[in-house]
Amino acid sequence: MTGEDPYDGLERLRRVARGLLWTALACLTAPAIALLGANLYEHLEQPTDMHLPGLLSAALVFYLAPVGVVLLLLALLAGAWAWWLGRAVD
Length: 90
Prior knowledge:
By secondary structure, this protein is mainly α. Helix content is 86%, strand content 0%.
């Protein structure tokens, strides 16, 4: 060993896991808010075939939500790895 603190890398891994988790939650919350906004817009205005809030919410659901799921899985994996490493260091 070079005298490094074993908890330094562990703290970085925990920060990465927290960052991935918050990013995943943001990616999953944005489509839900857009869907609520599109639903509210449809109740206020006469529904048409295509309107911007509906198109935006559809794009967020099809493109951003799967990214959020992948990031959530990576956050869980990083968190589990940090937990396992923390137990091994102690």
